[in-house]
Every structure is written in C-alpha cells, then in structure tokens.
Amino acid sequence: MGLMSGRNILVFGVANKHSIAWGIAKALHAHGAHIALSFAGPKLAHRVRSLAEQVGATFVEPCDVTSDDDIDRLFAAYERSVGRLDGLVHAVAFAPTSDLNGEFRDISREGFLLTMDVSAYSLIALTRRAVPLMPDGGAILTMTSYAAEKVIPHYNVMAVAKAALECEVRYLGVELGPRNIRVNAVSAGLVRTLAAQAMDNFQPLFRLAREVTPLRRNMTPEDAGSAALYLMSDLGAAVTGETLHMDGGYSALGISVPERLVAAELARPGAAPAGAEADD
Predict the structure, then answer these.
(1) Catalytic residue numbers?
(2) What is residue 10's predicted lDDT score, i.e. its pLDDT?
(3) How many structural domains comprise the chain?
(4) 278 inside domain
(5) Residue 202 domain-assigned?
C-alpha cells in the first residue's frame, strides 16, 4: 500500500522525460496513484503518450489553458472517463524568450499578459473546474521559483507570474480549507528542463548552483517528485497555503560566493590573512 494508493491525480505540464511534471507523475504513481496527463498541444502528443504508458495513464489529453472552452472540454472528458479527482498538479508555465532575456523595463505588454495568463491565471481556472470533482477533499500543487522572492537574472516576466502564483496559493488554500482541499506550491531550484533552458544564462547559473547551494548539487525532477509526494499525500495533511523550498538550501543564504573565489582572494598577494582587519 503506497502513500497515494487508489487516488486519482491529474497532472498538467508534462512535455518530456526531463519535465518537473513528469518527475512528479512518476513519484505519485510509484506510491499507488492513478495518473492522468494533460499536455500543451499536438506537437507534444507522441512524446507524452509514450511516457503515459510508463505510469499506466489511460487519460492523456491536450489542453490550451488560455481557453476556458478547452479547459471545460478537458474536465468534462475527465469526469466521463475517470470521475473522482483527488489531486491536481499544475506545472504549467510559459513566457516569450524576448521577455525573459531582455531588460526588465522592456517587457512587452503582450508578453506580460500572455505569461500571466498561462503561468498564473491558469491555476485559478483549473482549480475552479477541479473543485466539483473533489467532494471528499483533495490536494492541489503548483510549481514556483525563488525568483518570486528575490531577483534571478533573466527570469524577468516569469518572476512576476510566479509571485502572483504564490499569492494565489495562499488565497486558494484559505478558501478551500473548509472543503478539505489543500493548496500548496513547491519552489524548485534550478532544474535542467526544456523551459528553463530558454534563459540565456541558464547553463552558467546551473553550474554555479552546484558550488553555492548548501547541499552542493543541482535539483532534479525526482526531487520535485519527492516534495510533491509529501505535500499531496497524508504526510502533508496539515499543510496548506504554503510554499515549500526545494532548492538545496539556497534560499537560506544571505550571500552566495563560490569557495574557489574565496580561496583565490585569500591567495592573492597582499590579501589580509584570515581573521585580520584590513587597513582603512
């Protein structure tokens, strides 16, 4: 008997085997959940349907989360095919690359609205349809980033969307608590996903993370799966409206300086010895 035995979980956002959503789907399936998958569009269909076979998912449907009609269609199909819903995973995000990698002050109006619609409003839209299918309660989970709290270079418009998303988690968590529906977020460190690599500076940041995070390693989709298992199972039965940092301890740091730079500075001719005060 697994922690998720017999529970029906609908996962939005699987794109390929490196997706955070896929890491979550695998972890929940390993603990007995019945997985249903939704993906962004027809270009991903073959890839996602192939992955679906690995977790025994028979409900695999595309959904345009910017379309209320398409969301209605998907949930009607889910209710006919599966029925009860015990958990919803929202791992959906999109931003035009020009509004990630340019100057923050140059974010376009169109890019801002699209990013907010796909990455933040969609949680509200999906939750509204999910609640009627959770008469006995359930769990809703979304994915956010430390960029919602502190500046991460080249996160730009997505950082604003993630900040909105975290606010939604709090409001939804309070509103749905009396229905025994818990709403939480996982704030993931840098994970090598298809979406993350749209950032021009992702690779150097990814390498740097191994040096400065307290755990001295990068995060993986499997780490996200473990965090999701905690928040969506009875292990997290008393947790709602929260954002759980899954970042190797990075969010606990006040300053991030690679040890190699510290060593190089101490080795510099004329550098003050450890414990000594430099002259004014």
Answers:
(1) 155, 162
(2) 98
(3) 1
(4) no
(5) yes
> Where residue 201 sits, what CATH number does that domain have?
3.40.50.720
Residue 142 reports pLDDT greater than 90 = yes
Is residue 156, in this structure, part of any structural domain at all? Answer: yes
pLDDT per residue as tens digits for the range 226-258: 999 999 999 999 999 999 999 888 888 887 766
Greater model confidence, 145 or 197: 145
Quick one: pLDDT band at residue 260, thresholds 50, 70, 90?
confident
Would 279 be classed as within a structural domain? no
* AA identity, residue 33: A
Contact 87, 7 (CB under 8 A): yes
The tens digit of pLDDT for each residue in 7-38 reads 999 999 999 998 999 999 999 999 999 999 99
Question: For residue 65, which of 119, 130, 140, 8 has the smallest C-alpha distance?
Answer: 119
Structural domain of 209: 8-267
pTM: 0.89
Round to whole Å and give the CA distance between 204 and 206.
5
Measured at the alpha carbon of residue 54, what is the angle toward residues 51 and 57, in degrees to the nearest 5? 80
